[in-house]
Design goal:
Layout (H helix, E strand, L loop, with lengths): L2 E10 L2 E11 L4 E5 L6 H8 L7 E6 L2 E2 L5 H7 E4 L11 H6 L14 H13 L15 H14 L4 E5 L7 H13 L3 E5 L3 H7 L2 E6 L2 E6 L1 H4 L2 H8 L1 E7 L6 E7 L4
Parallel strand pairs: 3-8, 3-9, 6-7, 7-8
Antiparallel strand pairs: 1-2, 1-4, 4-5, 9-10, 11-12
Helix pairs in contact: 4-5, 5-6
The structure holds adenosine-5'-diphosphate and magnesium ion.
The site of adenosine-5'-diphosphate has 10 residues, from helix 1.
Length: 257
Protein backbone atom coordinates (compact mmCIF):
# COMPACT_ATOMS: atom_id res chain seq x y z
CA UNK A 1 0.00 0.00 0.00
CA UNK A 2 1.53 3.33 -0.93
CA UNK A 3 1.09 6.95 0.07
CA UNK A 4 1.31 9.71 -2.48
CA UNK A 5 1.38 13.39 -1.63
CA UNK A 6 0.74 15.53 -4.68
CA UNK A 7 1.17 19.31 -4.81
CA UNK A 8 0.45 19.84 -1.12
CA UNK A 9 0.31 23.43 0.15
CA UNK A 10 -0.85 24.69 3.54
CA UNK A 11 -1.53 28.29 4.55
CA UNK A 12 -2.24 29.59 8.04
CA UNK A 13 -3.88 33.04 7.96
CA UNK A 14 -2.35 33.79 4.60
CA UNK A 15 1.15 32.57 5.50
CA UNK A 16 2.23 29.64 3.35
CA UNK A 17 4.07 27.13 5.57
CA UNK A 18 4.02 24.20 3.14
CA UNK A 19 4.61 24.92 -0.53
CA UNK A 20 3.85 22.47 -3.29
CA UNK A 21 5.22 19.32 -1.68
CA UNK A 22 5.00 16.08 -3.63
CA UNK A 23 6.43 12.75 -2.49
CA UNK A 24 5.66 9.07 -2.46
CA UNK A 25 6.23 6.27 0.02
CA UNK A 26 6.05 2.97 -1.87
CA UNK A 27 4.72 -0.24 -0.38
CA UNK A 28 6.95 -1.34 2.53
CA UNK A 29 9.28 1.64 2.18
CA UNK A 30 10.61 3.52 5.23
CA UNK A 31 10.58 7.17 4.22
CA UNK A 32 11.90 9.99 6.41
CA UNK A 33 11.21 13.72 6.51
CA UNK A 34 14.07 15.71 7.99
CA UNK A 35 14.54 19.45 8.30
CA UNK A 36 15.05 22.22 10.84
CA UNK A 37 12.41 23.07 13.43
CA UNK A 38 9.51 24.93 11.87
CA UNK A 39 10.27 23.74 8.34
CA UNK A 40 6.81 22.20 7.92
CA UNK A 41 7.30 18.47 8.59
CA UNK A 42 4.48 18.13 11.12
CA UNK A 43 2.15 20.17 8.94
CA UNK A 44 2.70 17.78 6.03
CA UNK A 45 2.16 14.72 8.24
CA UNK A 46 -1.01 16.20 9.77
CA UNK A 47 -2.46 16.45 6.27
CA UNK A 48 -1.60 12.78 5.72
CA UNK A 49 -3.32 11.57 8.89
CA UNK A 50 -6.26 13.92 8.30
CA UNK A 51 -5.78 16.22 11.28
CA UNK A 52 -5.49 19.11 8.82
CA UNK A 53 -7.05 19.89 5.45
CA UNK A 54 -4.49 21.24 2.98
CA UNK A 55 -5.04 24.54 1.17
CA UNK A 56 -4.13 22.79 -2.07
CA UNK A 57 -3.03 19.37 -3.21
CA UNK A 58 -4.09 15.85 -2.39
CA UNK A 59 -2.96 12.85 -0.38
CA UNK A 60 -3.71 9.47 -1.94
CA UNK A 61 -3.50 6.11 -0.26
CA UNK A 62 -3.27 3.32 -2.77
CA UNK A 63 -4.55 5.69 -5.38
CA UNK A 64 -7.66 6.85 -3.45
CA UNK A 65 -7.95 10.54 -2.52
CA UNK A 66 -8.16 10.88 1.25
CA UNK A 67 -11.18 13.21 1.42
CA UNK A 68 -13.13 10.71 -0.68
CA UNK A 69 -12.40 7.99 1.87
CA UNK A 70 -14.42 7.77 5.10
CA UNK A 71 -12.56 8.44 8.35
CA UNK A 72 -13.20 4.84 9.37
CA UNK A 73 -11.84 3.43 6.12
CA UNK A 74 -8.76 5.63 6.23
CA UNK A 75 -8.12 4.56 9.85
CA UNK A 76 -8.13 0.95 8.65
CA UNK A 77 -5.44 1.82 6.16
CA UNK A 78 -3.34 4.29 8.10
CA UNK A 79 -2.31 4.65 11.75
CA UNK A 80 -0.62 7.76 13.16
CA UNK A 81 1.64 8.60 16.08
CA UNK A 82 1.39 12.40 16.28
CA UNK A 83 4.24 14.43 17.76
CA UNK A 84 2.52 15.23 21.04
CA UNK A 85 0.34 12.12 20.95
CA UNK A 86 0.52 11.63 24.61
CA UNK A 87 -2.69 13.49 25.27
CA UNK A 88 -3.54 12.63 28.81
CA UNK A 89 -4.91 9.12 28.52
CA UNK A 90 -6.28 8.19 31.93
CA UNK A 91 -6.75 4.60 30.78
CA UNK A 92 -5.01 1.29 31.30
CA UNK A 93 -2.51 0.18 28.70
CA UNK A 94 -4.91 -2.56 27.57
CA UNK A 95 -7.64 0.07 27.05
CA UNK A 96 -5.32 2.35 25.08
CA UNK A 97 -4.33 -0.52 22.77
CA UNK A 98 -8.01 -1.56 22.39
CA UNK A 99 -8.74 1.90 20.93
CA UNK A 100 -6.80 0.72 17.89
CA UNK A 101 -9.63 -1.72 17.13
CA UNK A 102 -12.36 0.93 16.87
CA UNK A 103 -12.07 1.42 13.07
CA UNK A 104 -12.78 -2.29 12.66
CA UNK A 105 -15.87 -2.36 14.90
CA UNK A 106 -19.52 -1.49 14.34
CA UNK A 107 -21.09 1.53 16.02
CA UNK A 108 -21.94 -0.06 19.37
CA UNK A 109 -19.79 -3.15 19.10
CA UNK A 110 -17.96 -4.58 22.05
CA UNK A 111 -14.47 -6.05 21.76
CA UNK A 112 -14.62 -9.55 20.30
CA UNK A 113 -12.27 -12.39 21.20
CA UNK A 114 -10.45 -11.65 17.98
CA UNK A 115 -10.03 -7.98 18.99
CA UNK A 116 -8.61 -9.08 22.31
CA UNK A 117 -6.22 -11.53 20.65
CA UNK A 118 -5.08 -8.88 18.17
CA UNK A 119 -4.41 -6.38 20.99
CA UNK A 120 -2.55 -8.91 23.14
CA UNK A 121 -0.40 -9.92 20.17
CA UNK A 122 0.36 -6.26 19.38
CA UNK A 123 1.42 -5.57 22.98
CA UNK A 124 3.53 -8.74 23.12
CA UNK A 125 5.06 -7.81 19.77
CA UNK A 126 6.50 -4.61 21.23
CA UNK A 127 7.64 -6.37 24.41
CA UNK A 128 5.01 -4.65 26.55
CA UNK A 129 2.64 -7.51 27.41
CA UNK A 130 3.55 -7.17 31.08
CA UNK A 131 2.30 -3.55 31.08
CA UNK A 132 -1.31 -4.41 30.08
CA UNK A 133 -2.81 -3.64 33.50
CA UNK A 134 -0.78 -0.48 34.18
CA UNK A 135 -2.19 3.04 33.96
CA UNK A 136 -0.90 4.67 30.77
CA UNK A 137 0.02 7.83 32.69
CA UNK A 138 2.33 5.87 35.02
CA UNK A 139 4.59 4.70 32.16
CA UNK A 140 8.01 6.08 31.19
CA UNK A 141 8.37 7.88 27.84
CA UNK A 142 9.81 4.79 26.16
CA UNK A 143 7.07 2.55 27.52
CA UNK A 144 4.38 5.01 26.36
CA UNK A 145 5.85 5.06 22.88
CA UNK A 146 5.91 1.24 22.77
CA UNK A 147 2.25 1.12 23.84
CA UNK A 148 1.26 3.69 21.20
CA UNK A 149 3.06 1.60 18.58
CA UNK A 150 1.12 -1.43 19.83
CA UNK A 151 -2.11 0.58 19.48
CA UNK A 152 -1.12 1.50 15.91
CA UNK A 153 -0.33 -2.17 15.13
CA UNK A 154 -3.65 -3.31 16.67
CA UNK A 155 -5.29 -1.00 14.16
CA UNK A 156 -3.86 -3.37 11.49
CA UNK A 157 -3.09 -0.53 9.09
CA UNK A 158 -0.99 -0.80 5.98
CA UNK A 159 0.68 2.58 6.48
CA UNK A 160 2.16 4.13 9.62
CA UNK A 161 2.78 7.86 9.94
CA UNK A 162 5.00 8.98 12.82
CA UNK A 163 6.04 12.45 13.93
CA UNK A 164 9.41 12.42 15.67
CA UNK A 165 8.63 9.15 17.48
CA UNK A 166 11.99 9.11 19.27
CA UNK A 167 11.67 12.49 21.02
CA UNK A 168 12.36 12.36 24.76
CA UNK A 169 13.63 8.77 24.58
CA UNK A 170 17.05 7.58 25.66
CA UNK A 171 19.32 6.19 22.96
CA UNK A 172 18.48 2.52 23.54
CA UNK A 173 14.77 3.34 23.36
CA UNK A 174 15.27 5.41 20.20
CA UNK A 175 16.93 2.47 18.44
CA UNK A 176 14.29 0.08 19.75
CA UNK A 177 11.31 2.17 18.66
CA UNK A 178 12.62 2.52 15.11
CA UNK A 179 13.45 -1.20 14.93
CA UNK A 180 9.92 -2.07 16.05
CA UNK A 181 8.44 0.17 13.40
CA UNK A 182 10.79 -1.25 10.79
CA UNK A 183 9.94 -4.83 11.84
CA UNK A 184 6.25 -4.16 11.20
CA UNK A 185 7.02 -4.24 7.47
CA UNK A 186 4.42 -1.49 6.94
CA UNK A 187 4.84 1.48 4.64
CA UNK A 188 6.29 4.14 6.96
CA UNK A 189 6.38 7.91 6.65
CA UNK A 190 8.11 9.55 9.60
CA UNK A 191 9.57 12.88 10.61
CA UNK A 192 12.89 12.37 12.37
CA UNK A 193 14.94 14.87 14.29
CA UNK A 194 18.16 12.90 14.47
CA UNK A 195 19.95 12.75 11.13
CA UNK A 196 22.10 9.77 12.11
CA UNK A 197 19.04 7.72 13.07
CA UNK A 198 17.40 8.82 9.84
CA UNK A 199 20.48 7.73 7.87
CA UNK A 200 20.46 4.31 9.55
CA UNK A 201 16.76 3.55 9.17
CA UNK A 202 15.35 5.29 6.11
CA UNK A 203 15.28 3.91 2.59
CA UNK A 204 14.54 7.38 1.31
CA UNK A 205 14.87 10.86 2.82
CA UNK A 206 13.18 14.12 1.93
CA UNK A 207 14.78 17.26 3.31
CA UNK A 208 12.24 19.99 4.08
CA UNK A 209 13.31 23.62 4.45
CA UNK A 210 10.98 26.61 4.54
CA UNK A 211 7.99 24.46 3.59
CA UNK A 212 9.60 23.01 0.45
CA UNK A 213 11.43 19.79 -0.33
CA UNK A 214 14.99 20.81 -1.11
CA UNK A 215 16.55 17.36 -1.56
CA UNK A 216 15.32 13.77 -1.92
CA UNK A 217 17.04 10.43 -2.25
CA UNK A 218 18.94 7.74 -0.39
CA UNK A 219 20.51 9.05 2.86
CA UNK A 220 24.00 8.61 1.44
CA UNK A 221 23.16 10.81 -1.54
CA UNK A 222 21.18 13.45 0.34
CA UNK A 223 23.17 14.08 3.53
CA UNK A 224 26.07 15.92 1.93
CA UNK A 225 28.22 18.50 3.75
CA UNK A 226 26.97 21.18 1.33
CA UNK A 227 23.31 20.45 2.04
CA UNK A 228 23.85 20.21 5.81
CA UNK A 229 25.62 23.59 5.80
CA UNK A 230 22.89 25.17 3.69
CA UNK A 231 19.84 23.74 5.45
CA UNK A 232 20.98 23.10 9.03
CA UNK A 233 23.80 25.64 9.27
CA UNK A 234 26.39 23.12 10.47
CA UNK A 235 29.68 21.74 9.26
CA UNK A 236 29.30 17.98 8.83
CA UNK A 237 31.87 15.24 8.40
CA UNK A 238 30.72 11.98 6.89
CA UNK A 239 31.96 8.69 8.35
CA UNK A 240 30.83 5.25 7.20
CA UNK A 241 29.29 3.12 9.93
CA UNK A 242 32.06 0.55 10.66
CA UNK A 243 29.68 -2.41 10.48
CA UNK A 244 26.97 -1.46 8.03
CA UNK A 245 28.70 1.17 5.92
CA UNK A 246 25.68 3.48 6.34
CA UNK A 247 26.57 7.16 6.23
CA UNK A 248 26.92 8.72 9.70
CA UNK A 249 27.65 12.33 10.55
CA UNK A 250 29.83 14.26 12.98
CA UNK A 251 28.97 17.92 13.45
CA UNK A 252 30.83 21.14 14.11
CA UNK A 253 29.82 24.76 13.99
CA UNK A 254 30.32 26.42 10.64
CA UNK A 255 33.39 28.67 10.69
CA UNK A 256 32.46 32.30 11.36
CA UNK A 257 32.10 34.22 8.09
P1 LIG B 1 8.19 21.20 11.97
O1 LIG B 1 7.34 20.03 12.29
O2 LIG B 1 9.08 20.99 10.78
O3 LIG B 1 8.98 21.68 13.16
P2 LIG B 1 5.64 22.57 11.67
O4 LIG B 1 4.98 21.88 10.55
O5 LIG B 1 5.19 22.23 13.05
O6 LIG B 1 7.23 22.42 11.55
O7 LIG B 1 5.47 24.14 11.50
C1 LIG B 1 5.76 24.80 10.27
C2 LIG B 1 5.40 26.25 10.42
O8 LIG B 1 3.98 26.39 10.47
C3 LIG B 1 5.95 26.92 11.68
O9 LIG B 1 6.34 28.23 11.35
C4 LIG B 1 4.75 26.93 12.60
O10 LIG B 1 4.82 28.00 13.51
C5 LIG B 1 3.60 27.11 11.63
N1 LIG B 1 2.34 26.52 12.10
C6 LIG B 1 2.11 25.21 12.36
N2 LIG B 1 0.83 25.01 12.76
C7 LIG B 1 0.24 26.24 12.77
C8 LIG B 1 -1.08 26.71 13.07
N3 LIG B 1 -2.05 25.86 13.46
N4 LIG B 1 -1.30 28.04 12.95
C9 LIG B 1 -0.34 28.89 12.54
N5 LIG B 1 0.92 28.51 12.23
C10 LIG B 1 1.22 27.21 12.34
MG1 LIG C 1 7.20 18.93 14.02
Amino acid sequence: MDVEIDGLSVEFSGARVVQDISLRAGSGQFVGLVGPNGSGKSTVLRCVYRALRPTAGVVRIDGDDLPATSARESARRLAALPQEAVAEFDFTVAEVVAMGRVPHQGALARDTDEDRRTCAAALDGVGAGHLAGRGFLTLSGGEKQRVLIARALAQQPRVMVLDEPTNHLDIAQQLEVLSLVRASGLTVLTALHDLNLAALHCDLLHVVDGGRIVASGAPHDVLTPALLAEVFGVRAHRVPHPETGAVQLLFDRLPAQ
